[in-house]
Each structure stands twice: as C-alpha cells, then as structure tokens.
Design goal:
Layout: E1 2-7, E2 19-23, E3 35-36, H1 47-50, H2 53-62, E4 67-72, E5 75-77, H3 92-99, E6 104-106, E7 110-111, H4 117-124, H5 127-140, H6 145-153, E8 156-157, E9 163-166, H7 167-187, H8 200-216, E10 221-222, E11 225-227, H9 233-245
Parallel strand pairs: 1-2, 1-4, 2-3, 6-10
Antiparallel strand pairs: 4-9, 5-11, 6-9, 7-8
Helix pairs in contact: 4-5, 5-7, 6-8, 7-8
C-alpha cells in the first residue's frame, strides 16, 4: 500500500512508510527534496490545470501496489483520536483495518444543503465545464449518464480527490476519468480563465468521482479528515453564500 502525499512545497511529512511524499508539477517547478511526478509515464507539465491529478496519473502509471491512495500535504485521513493533530493522521494499521471490510476509503461527504453539485459548481466556476463534460460522457460512455445526472442533482458529494482504493478499482477509475478529462482538455477553451479557474480538470474530477462510484456501485468506508492548518470556516461560509446569491457572471 502506498498513499501519495501530494505537495507543491517543502512541508512536514508523516514518517509512516505507507506515505510517499510526491512533488506535483515538478516538470514545471524547482525541484524539492521529494520524489516527483515527472518520472516514468507522467503528465507533470499539466499540473496548473490538473492539480493533484498529476500525482494520481503518476501513481496509476508507475506504482505497483495492492492499494493506492492520495492525500495532500496539509490534509490527511484521520486515524486514532488525539489532541495533537499530527498524531491523528491515519497510519498503515488504520488503513488495513478499514480495507479488510471495504475496498475503498473516502472522506465524509460534503453537504451543500441549499445547492446541488451542479449549481454549486456553476456558481463557483464556468457552466461550460460541466455541460461539455456531460456531452463527452454521452458520447463516450452513455451508460454513465443516469449516474451523472443523479450526482449533479444531489446536494452531497465527496471532495478533495482524496481516496485509498484497491488497485483494480483504481485502474478502472483512472482509465475512465482521464479518457474524459483529456477529451475535455481538447475541447475546452480556457485561455481567458483566471488562474484559479484554469484548475478546471481537478475541479471536474471531484464531481466525476462520485459518478464512477454510483455507476459501479463500489462499496466504501469513510474516514474523517484532519487539517494541519486552521480552517477559516466563517469566511468559507460567506464565500459560499455570496456565490449562491450573488454569483459572478462567467461564460
């Protein structure tokens, strides 16, 4: 089992050997003292638009493990309870216990309550991103459309592109996901997007993750998430409400 700890800067890393610190976007950034996502078969140069998915792609093409996962340098799955956040990070034993019953571990779902997954996305990003994705799914794998519509109408969804998966499930997901995203990349004109919105393929992947889970009926367990940096929840809630009721006009 290997859990990628994706990072774009030098940062504290867990000492449990189950974690593999990996610099994302190394092909276009100064090298850090970690392995990079630019070795073997990779899409490291796409990191500014694919975000942590360059680590996912690298793991898919270059790791041979029974289970593969992804966390972030400041966001991990939580294991044992402790007052010290660093001690709460899940270790290999925590993962093995969970994976003995289910082939996949995910963070708890986020509930938007007053927004569907679709409306939340278009109030935060560009509507064309999801509309074009739907067209591609209709062309490439129309059997996924009912699951896509179900997920888009739901107010709940998994975020962060965080997971631990059995290798065969991981391989199937990546093959399906990147086929769609590379086609979306070919069709979507993001030249006028802000730097934030140019991370579109990472954002879309967060929504497609649940589509794959629903369609394939993959059983999973959930583990809480521990943040190594403080979260400004009042500010996040204010931004969420502003996007809902005073959305920016984007093409």
């Amino acid at each position: 089992m290997k859990i990628i700890a994706a990072t774009h800067k030098e940062y504290w890393m867990p000492d449990d050997p189950v974690y593999l610190p990996l610099q994302v976007g190394r092909a276009i950034s100064p090298a850090l003292p970690y392995d990079g996502d630019d070795s073997g078969e990779n899409i490291s140069s796409k990191n500014r638009t694919f975000c942590e998915l360059t680590a996912v792609y690298w793991a898919w093409k270059n790791l041979d493990e029974d289970f593969i996962g992804l966390c972030h340098y400041r966001r991990y799955f939580a294991g044992k309870r402790s007052r010290q956040k660093y001690d709460r990070i899940a270790g290999a034993d925590d993962y093995r216990k969970m994976l003995a019953d289910k082939p996949c571990i995910l963070p708890p779902m986020r509930n938007y309550f007053i927004e569907s997954n679709y409306s939340q996305y278009i109030h935060s990003h560009h509507r064309i991103d999801l509309d074009m994705t739907e067209k591609i799914i209709a062309e490439k794998c129309p059997e996924f459309l009912p699951a896509y519509h179900q997920v888009m109408k739901s107010t709940r969804g998994h975020r962060f592109n965080m997971f631990v998966m059995r290798k065969d499930i991981f391989d199937g997901y990546c093959s399906w996901l990147f086929d769609i995203l590379f086609e979306l990349e070919r069709r979507l004109d993001i030249s006028a997007y802000s730097d934030y919105d140019k991370r579109v393929f990472g954002f879309v992947a967060e929504r497609l993750f649940d589509v794959y889970l629903v369609q394939k009926q993959i059983p999973y367990a959930t583990m809480p998430v521990v943040y190594l940096e403080n979260q400004n929840w009042p500010a996040k809630i204010c931004r969420f409400l502003k996007r809902k009721f005073c959305p920016e006009r984007k093409a």
